[in-house]
Design brief:
The complex is a heterodimer of chains A (281) and B (317).
Chain A lengths: L4 H21 L4 H6 L1 H11 L15 E4 L5 H10 L41 H14 L6 E6 L6 H12 L5 E7 L2 E2 L2 E2 H5 L4 H7 L3 E5 L5 H13 L7 E6 L22 H10 L8
Chain B lengths: L9 E2 H15 L3 E5 L9 H6 L4 E3 L4 H11 L5 E7 H4 L4 H9 L6 E5 L17 H6 L5 E4 L3 H12 L5 E4 L4 E2 L15 E4 L4 E5 L3 H14 L4 E5 L2 E3 L3 H11 L2 E8 L4 H12 L4 E6 L9 H7 L4 H13 L2
Parallel strand pairs in B: 2-3, 2-4, 4-5, 5-7, 6-7, 10-11, 10-13, 13-14
Antiparallel strand pairs in B: 1-8, 6-12, 9-11
Helix pairs in contact in B: 1-7, 3-5, 8-12, 9-10
The chains are: A alpha/beta (281), B alpha/beta (317).
Chain lengths: 281, 317
């Protein structure tokens, strides 16, 4: 197995970035961000062929669309640490006149963001459009998306899922962050999702399950497996089982930290659990 | 008085369809999406000529708008086609976030707007779409008056970078603007010069406004007629200039007076040259079943009512 220590170091640093961003403005969404840290770090640093000098059209590049835009803290940290913009800019998160808006947007021209997201359920459709154009342009790269599991309650997701299967959109890998939590409680309590593998397979998708979504090696193996399934006339879904708030013991496994920020003491404890590896911004 | 001749009634949606067909041949970046209304939108020729650039999405308008936004990434110019109601109200949030706020170069092309799709009734009519679309920052809003102008607008919006809402309709209406005429987004067209009253009309009611000037002329009233095909950005200069000349204004549109052309004109005038204004528009109501002509008469969206309002507003000067 490849040495993934550099990814693990980055994961720890990104977790620090997440809680520091959210703490600084006493707002934002740390829980889902922490749970998706291994996935985004791995995708941007070990999987995608992408150019941080950033061109909106992204021709001959792999593309990523964040559909659950509220996990912007992890997205911004990973983009900055991939070279899209200076890491110091993370200190402007959610502040007036920032490019790092509460939810990601193209409106302020932040490199790395290709679509606004926040109102849920829209990213898969956008990705399908971009994937279709890649085929028209003879561009063989892959389009990735990330969605929350609660987000699957939006009907547009299933419009998109039906379209992608019916039209052989096989250059699309949509990952579902299966953490079982949403704002009002567990997904089972709020609106049970049923068997997601069965649902996606019934819609005509290939499904890859990653049971250890907070383990870099497992995540990398899952994405690589998904990549072997591209180009076979079916869209691909990764069911990524993660733990909300992962990496910070008092935030883990609960919906309580979906959308609230740590106080000073909680921040100190969170940072103690995630020692600085690559330098804070 | 200038006389306009109807060169043969045609539906504005066919102007869109023929414009799209032409675009397909001359601009390989143009792609089209349709939500199970290809025939109604007259998109068949484009679909047949360029199957690789035509995307049938089924009855799934939200997905269509998202896909269109995504297709701009990689340099395509997507044209979406469905009825005006399903192009706006049904998918407002998708347009707002994925297209308008995301600055995407999508052309939202909407047929069967207003009352004049007729018998299908209020679920398929929409009288709020201009308001919905003009409130979105960065959105260009166009409502064309006849076949020739709709075709010209379809060609023009492909060369304009940014989101556009293009509104047209189903019934056959008089075709009177020049064939292959130039279409300048945001530029009003002065159709008739007059001195007593200014009639500012958009869409199907432009022809009704021209008809109204004939009746007014017989009564010795000289009416100026301005065709506002672009509601946003509005040609404020043309409106102010004419209001200064005639001293009163009638606006005419196949839309609710709330949120429509009339309100945009009223704002322009109140800020720059307060002027008496009457509104030919629907009065905060849904539509209903009926023939297009019956509906226009019942809701007062015809030449007769435009002339009545013109006489009324002249008295308010």
């Amino acid at each position: 197995m490849a040495d993934t220590q550099h990814l693990k170091d980055l994961v720890t640093q990104v977790r620090r970035d997440i809680v520091r961003q959210v703490h600084a403005v006493s707002s934002g969404h740390p829980g889902g961000s922490l749970g998706c840290t291994e996935f985004l770090v791995t995708l941007y640093n070990e999987v995608m062929d992408h150019d941080p000098s950033f061109n909106m059209d992204g021709v001959n590049e792999d593309l990523f669309f964040l559909s659950n835009g509220h996990i912007s803290p992890v997205f911004y940290s990973v983009l900055a640490r991939s070279g899209y913009f200076p890491v110091e800019e993370l200190s402007t998160f959610r502040k007036l006149n920032t490019r790092l808006q509460g939810h990601p947007t193209t409106h302020e021209g932040l490199p790395g963001v290709r679509i606004a997201s926040g109102s849920l359920g829209q990213g898969m459709s956008v990705a399908i459009g971009a994937a279709a154009v890649k085929k028209l342009n003879g561009d063989t790269k892959t389009v990735f998306t990330l969605h929350g599991d609660g987000e699957l309650q939006e009907g547009q997701i299933w419009e998109a899922a039906m379209y992608a299967a019916a039209n052989d959109v096989d250059n699309l890998i949509s990952t579902i962050d299966v953490n079982g939590q949403q704002i009002d409680g567990s997904t089972d309590q709020v609106l049970a999702l049923g068997d997601l593998r069965d649902k996606f397979e019934a819609f005509g998708w290939k499904v890859v399950t990653v049971t250890k979504g907070n383990d870099v090696d497992a995540v990398l193996a899952g994405i690589k497996e998904a990549l072997t399934l591209t180009g076979k006339k079916q869209p691909i879904c990764i069911l990524l089982h993660t733990e909300m708030g992962n990496g910070i013991d008092f935030m883990m496994g609960s919906h309580a930290w979906h959308g609230i920020a740590p106080n000073d003491e909680q921040l100190a404890e969170a940072l103690r659990q995630n020692p600085e590896t690559l330098g804070d911004y | 008085m200038k006389i306009y001749e109807n060169t043969g009634s045609k539906d504005t949606r066919s102007g869109f369809g023929d414009g799209l067909t032409e675009l397909g041949q001359k601009n390989e970046n143009v792609v089209a999406l349709c939500a199970d209304l290809t025939g109604s939108l007259k998109m068949n020729a484009f679909a047949n000529n360029h199957p690789e650039r035509f995307f049938q999405v089924g009855i799934a308008e939200a997905n269509m708008m998202g896909m269109a936004a995504g297709m701009t990434i990689g340099g395509k110019i997507p044209f979406t086609g469905t009825f005006a109601n399903f192009s706006t109200g049904r998918v407002y949030d998708q347009i707002r976030q994925s297209i308008a706020y995301s600055d995407k170069n999508v052309k939202i092309c909407a047929s069967h707007s207003g009352l004049t799709l007729g018998e299908d009734g209020a679920t398929h009519q929409i009288l709020e779409d201009i308001g919905l679309m003009k409130m979105l920052p960065g959105m260009t809003v166009i409502n064309t008056c006849d076949y020739n102008q709709t075709k010209a607008a379809t060609l023009a919006i492909a060369d304009h970078h940014g989101p556009v809402y293009l509104r047209f309709g189903r019934p056959k209406v008089a075709n009177f603007t020049p064939e292959n005429g130039e279409f300048k987004i945001g530029k009003a067209v002065l159709l008739q010069e007059g001195t007593d009253v200014t009639i500012i009309a958009t869409g199907h009611l432009v022809w009704e406004a021209l008809e109204a000037t004939k009746a007014l002329n017989e009564k010795g009233i000289s009416a100026e007629v301005i065709n506002i095909h672009t509601i946003k950005p509005l040609d404020e200069e043309a409106i102010i200039k004419s209001a200064k000349k005639t001293g009163c204004v009638v606006t005419a549109e196949e839309h609710n007076f709330l949120g429509g052309l009339g309100e945009s004109v009223a704002r322009t005038l109140s800020l720059n040259h307060p002027t008496p204004q009457e509104f030919v528009a629907t009065n905060d109501t849904f539509g209903e079943s009926g023939t297009p002509a019956q509906l226009l008469e019942k809701y007062g969206l015809n030449a007769e009512n435009i002339a009545l309002k013109a006489e009324a507003v002249i008295k308010r000067k």
